[in-house]
Amino acid sequence: MEKMLEEILSNAKFIYRGAESDLYEINFLGRKAILKWRKPKPYRIEALDRYIRKERTIREVTVMLKLRRYGVNVPRVFHILIENNAFIMEKLSGVIVRDTINLENYKWIAKELGRIVAKMHNLNIVHGDLTTSNVILSPDHKLYLIDFGLSAVTTKIEEMAVDLELLYRVLESTHTRIYNEFFEIFKEIYLNNFSYGCDVLREFERIRRMGRYIPKEERVWR
Amino acid sequence: MNYIMGIESTAHTFAVGIVNENFEILADIRYIYRPRRSMGIEPREAAEHHSKIAAKAVKEALSTAKISLEDISAIAYSYGPGLGPCLRIGATISRFLAAYYDIPLYPVHHGLGHVELACQLLGINDPMVVLVSGGHTAILGFSEGRWRVYGETLDITLGNLLDSFAREAGIPFPGGPKIEEIARKGKRYIEMPYAVKGNNIVYSGLLTYAIDMLRKYPLEDVCYSLQETAFSALVEACERALVQLKKRDIIIAGGVAPNNRLLEMMKKMGEQHMVGVHRLESRYNPDNGIQIAIVGLLYYKSGYPPTEPSKAIIKQRVRIEREEVPWRKC
Q: Which of A99, A129, A140, A147 is the catalytic position?
């Protein structure tokens, strides 16, 4: 098993270092593919590190397979190297939504993303890191979700609301001009497509006020 | 020469600092309220302590700096966030001095003090700041006119976690340094709840769990596992924020910053992204008057309008994003 990763890496092209893992472009049975490898983190002690990496790799692959089966656009998983905490998936062409979003296309993106997130939550899956950097706009005009490292299978309304909260925060801090309208459109479509949407949005309003040092009038606890 | 006086009284420390216009530190007087053994801060008692030594601290600061009150160009005080009774002492003294001697007055956000002091003394202009103390656990970066929060704790802070745990374990106040010392003897890692949500962290579950483990395992192992779990989660959140923000430097600031294990972990993470990790000398990490004076000086130099003594209030809860930072360009 160890050998297999070494062999793959010898022909791989390093493309990106994320917070959690390194991405390499490789050739997998004649196709262009991506190897996502969760390297050991030197700052964590081994016992904790091994556990976290293994758990997240397995969960990520499981979630991606399930979403794919139910027709949510995510990259296809080709192969998993369980011993190495790595897996191989389809290489998507396209651009990251964070870099491509503009005043012309944001309404369409908001609608489409609302529909996708509603569908995902309907399947009891939360993304865990739902930012505009983790959404890809493909050349055939479809949105793909990527990076399910922090995802979870859950029926908890609170965790779904955390997805929306993170999305809202990212919009607020990086897409300052459009975030309000973007989120309004997103919310409407999300509500129409997810029967527990109302509950999630109520919870969203609650956790949005959970940070520290929120003034008395606005806070939810203490 | 212009001199700025900073008065700090957000929690257990009453401190007076004086700096001159070249950012040179002339006086740094601190009096720290010590709770009874193994107890937390009692706000009213702390305030009483502050009110008794306040005048003495101001006099001492002036004599150390070898200046008189007439030489002071501006007074800055920490107006929040913090414990109400304690904040009130600092604010009252500052209002009195400002009104009686007709000196411009600046209310300063306490967290902003930690951040700007670190930037000034380390000479780093655009870092990602990890502010870890009893009041804050936040990952900050400057963008569009404000210090923005890119990740933070959703419940209790890292300082809170360590202090509360120490209290339950019977370790005397302040618990952080003692826990670090004990943890060095720990060998076995006990699995504990590890919660990272995006760039945010959650600590309260970990606290409950660690306290429970005290009954089953030796203290060394619990301290060791608690530190490893809490810091790993924080460093992971920082790593995520760093990849997003693309800053070249990380500064660890605040009361938990002197912890060497945290620095070591952060450095290992930084190395992988070719980012420098820095922190101040230990004595500037706990609450002090210099941090308030420095921000006062920055306001003063940028021509920011001072506050009327009658309008100089305190706020127990205020977020750092609300603070205007007129001396920084976006």
A: A129
